[in-house]
């Protein structure tokens, strides 16, 4: 039986008095890769923030079910604990907190949630080492402050590292490719794909981008075109081709 | 957007509650003076303490200066009138005679210190720290005296020092902070009742960390303590200071003086974790903490380091300073000041460079929450002969919520053009985006704020001795978390 991970129905959402999401519907089942494409300002990033519970957005109507439960009434951290992971377009810099301390803290919070033992610094070192090797990240990365002074590529790689560590059920990648050169994009997506292979079989991915090039690195099961706050077209890879050939304008009514 | 801001504020308010777990009072029999201050009270105090004539003269001189002085009003503080005639200037736990060992200390008082996590029993406490415990107006016990004496270090209450080492006291008392220095310093000089004294002889590295723990217990008594530390040539010492008080709805006055003197190549490192009762969430009660702390780097290459974590008190008025007289002497000031509810802090430092090639460094971190006011006030003075003097200052403020105030008042007074003075300042608000990012990784809002704050204070916490650093970190998160203490 196919298991529904995410079901968004008739979602309307706004920030201040501005409506950003208008009657949006989307369903993601377990183990699927979905791609949402759309021009700038179509509400793609907003969608990722609403999914993870950003307080700036107000839900006007509609609902979001996540693994059969009402996602909208859960706190940001509870959504995260329950397996929703958002890789940020612009990961935040946190001064004075080492990457290592941060990673161990979030890992142990997850362990607590799963009622498993928390790891002491030495035990955790073993875990993190294997992930670092997989992502070809140097050890000194851990001693630096969280994202502080990181290059764009390093920040994104750090997002993938956190993702591996937290073993999510639903991964939302918000413009993960933006601002990166081809090599960096490649590393990131290899990381994502490896994650998917390594992680629980049921992991689903929602990729948000306006750049069709990401398809060189992975192939989604479904492609959606988002414009003006709603999904205007569902399809598969062919949809991307027509975007590349004709732009988004063809989808305007 | 307004609504969102309000919501975030609400969230923050929930997070920044302030449990104070040291707010209990100990029931003890006490002996105290009648309230009020005048010359006969000072005579009485000096007689009671069996002081030599020079001390009485010192006190009276200070008192006569004090009555001529006015409460300074330049600080960014709102201070309600203090009625000095309603304060008890001397309150001590009743005891039979001279105490010779810990067994003779009132068990209630020992229990008090146990409850505060300060064990005066040498077997139970941290092996590398000697403690002087001050309860209201007197020192209760000093530990490891004998062990210290073997290396020639004197560590005792200032009262004992006046009794047993009057020459040393007479030579150094009031040389760094004179009896007419400022309003609260004069008051202290007139009525100080106890405090700690420590003397490190030449070429000695103090084998233990020295520590004084101050406890105000009585409701109506002010605490006026005085600490004097002298480090002779080539010596070094680490000194720690902690403070707590019970919860009362009245404000209590705490006016202390700390004087440090470092000779050639001597090093003094002085750390404070100040957690006096800060008043309740409506700003009722709490300690008025008016403290004069100053160090004199007298000899060549002497070095002074102040580290303070200020989380308590209703009002904090405190500027641990360094007078850098010796050539190539250096001064450091590392500070974290956290204010919440209606707390007010006006704190910082003065680095006075007189000697050639003197160096100073100031790192100040202010965190303001609730309706509190938190100001950094600092002076860097480079005298005309301070060739090639060097200062670096960094003052960062962190605001939680929309109703607190942070201010920075740097003063630069430079008389020598070969000096280099740098000042950096930042003000940041806890950003909704940072919180969102951390919470998206599974942290609660409390954990997220705690993490941001401890990151913000890291440079200063790194300067504290290990046990203190953990303590300080815990103290801050305790103040920030909603947990009941």
Summarize the structure in short.
With 253 residues, chain A is α/β, with parallel strands linked by helices. Chain A has seven helices and ten strands.
Characteristics:
heterodimer; A: 253 residues; alpha/beta; Rossmann fold; six-stranded mixed β-sheet; four-stranded antiparallel β-sheet; 26% strand; B: 485 residues; ten-stranded mixed β-sheet; 22 strands; 34% strand; disordered N terminus
CATH class of chain A: Alpha Beta
The span between the termini of chain B is 35 Å
Average pLDDT across residues of chain B? 83
Largest sheet, spatial ordering of strands of chain A: 6-7-8-3-9-10
Structural class of chain A: alpha/beta
Q: What is the number of helices of chain A?
A: 7
Characterize the overall form of chain B. Answer: globular
Strand order within the widest beta sheet of chain B: 4-3-7-9-11-13-16-18-20-22
- At CATH level 2, the architecture of chain A is 3-Layer(aba) Sandwich
Task: Give the fraction of residues assigned to helices of chain A.
Answer: 25-40%
């Amino acid at each position: 039986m196919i298991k529904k991970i995410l079901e968004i129905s008739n979602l309307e959402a706004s920030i201040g008095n501005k409506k950003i999401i208008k009657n949006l519907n989307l369903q993601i089942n377990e183990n699927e890769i979905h791609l949402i494409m759309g021009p700038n300002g179509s509400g793609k990033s907003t969608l990722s923030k609403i999914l993870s519970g950003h307080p700036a957005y107000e839900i006007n109507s509609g609902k979001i079910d996540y693994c059969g439960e009402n996602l909208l009434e859960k706190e940001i951290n509870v959504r995260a604990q329950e397996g929703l992971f958002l890789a940020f377009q612009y990961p935040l810099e946190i001064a004075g907190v080492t990457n290592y301390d941060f990673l161990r803290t979030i890992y142990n919070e997850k362990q607590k949630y799963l009622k498993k033992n928390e790891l002491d610094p030495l035990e955790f070192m073993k875990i993190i080492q294997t992930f670092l090797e997989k992502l070809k990240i140097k050890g000194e990365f851990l001693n630096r402050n969280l994202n502080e002074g990181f290059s764009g590529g390093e920040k994104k790689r750090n997002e993938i590292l956190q993702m591996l560590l937290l073993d999510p059920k639903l991964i939302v990648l918000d413009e993960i490719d933006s601002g990166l050169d081809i090599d960096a994009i490649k590393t990131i997506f290899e990381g994502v794909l490896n994650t998917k292979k390594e992680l629980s079989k049921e992991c689903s991915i929602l990729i948000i981008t306006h750049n069709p090039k990401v398809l060189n690195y992975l192939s989604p099961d479904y492609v959606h075109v988002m414009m003006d706050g709603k999904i205007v077209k569902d399809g598969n890879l062919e949809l991307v081709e027509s975007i590349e050939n004709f732009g988004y304008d063809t989808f305007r009514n | 957007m307004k609504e969102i801001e309000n919501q975030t504020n609400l969230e923050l308010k929930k997070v920044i509650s302030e449990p104070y777990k040291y707010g209990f009072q100990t029931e003890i029999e006490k002996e105290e003076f009648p309230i009020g201050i005048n010359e006969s009270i000072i005579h009485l105090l000096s007689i009671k303490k069996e002081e030599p004539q020079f001390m009485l003269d010192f006190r009276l001189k200070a008192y006569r200066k004090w009555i001529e002085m006015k409460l300074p009003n330049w600080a960014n503080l709102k201070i309600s009138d203090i009625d000095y005639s309603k304060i008890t200037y001397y309150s001590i736990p009743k005891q039979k005679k001279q105490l010779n060992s810990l067994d003779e200390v009132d068990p209630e008082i020992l229990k008090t210190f146990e409850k505060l996590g300060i064990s005066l029993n040498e077997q139970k406490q941290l092996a590398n720290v000697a403690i002087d415990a001050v309860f209201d107006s007197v020192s209760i016990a000093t530990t490891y005296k004998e062990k210290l004496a073997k290396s020639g270090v004197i560590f005792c209450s200032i009262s004992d020092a006046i009794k047993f080492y009057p020459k040393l006291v007479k030579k150094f008392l009031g040389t760094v902070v004179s009896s007419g220095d400022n309003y609260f310093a004069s008051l202290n000089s007139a009525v100080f009742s106890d405090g700690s004294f420590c003397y490190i002889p030449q070429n000695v590295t103090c084998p233990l960390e020295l520590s004084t723990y101050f406890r105000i217990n009585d409701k109506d008594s002010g605490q006026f303590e005085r600490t004097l530390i002298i480090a002779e040539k080539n010596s070094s010492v680490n000194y720690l200071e902690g403070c707590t008080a019970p919860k009362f709805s009245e404000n209590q006055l705490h006016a202390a003086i700390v004087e440090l003197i470092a000779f050639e190549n001597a090093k003094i490192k002085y750390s404070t974790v100040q957690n006096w009762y800060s008043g309740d969430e409506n700003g009722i009660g709490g300690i008025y903490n008016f403290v004069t702390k100053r160090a004199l780097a007298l000899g060549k290459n002497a070095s002074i380091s102040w580290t303070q974590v200020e989380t308590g008190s209703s009002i904090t008025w405190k500027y641990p300073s360094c007078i850098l007289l010796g050539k190539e002497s250096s001064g450091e000031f590392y500070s974290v000041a956290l204010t919440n509810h209606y707390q007010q802090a006006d704190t910082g430092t003065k680095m006075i460079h007189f000697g050639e090639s003197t160096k100073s460094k100031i790192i100040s971190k202010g965190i303001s929450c609730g309706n509190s006011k938190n100001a950094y006030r600092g002076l860097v003075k480079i005298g005309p002969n301070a060739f090639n003097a060097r200062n670096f200052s960094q003052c960062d403020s962190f605001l939680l919520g929309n109703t607190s105030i942070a201010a920075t008042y740097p003063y630069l007074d430079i008389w020598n053009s070969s000096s280099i003075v740098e000042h950096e300042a930042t003000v940041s608000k806890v950003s909704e985006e940072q919180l969102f990012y951390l919470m998206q990784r599974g942290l609660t809002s409390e954990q997220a704020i705690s993490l941001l704050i401890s990151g913000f204070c890291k440079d200063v916490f790194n300067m504290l001795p290990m046990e203190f650093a953990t303590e300080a970190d815990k103290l801050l998160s305790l103040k920030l978390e909603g947990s009941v203490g």
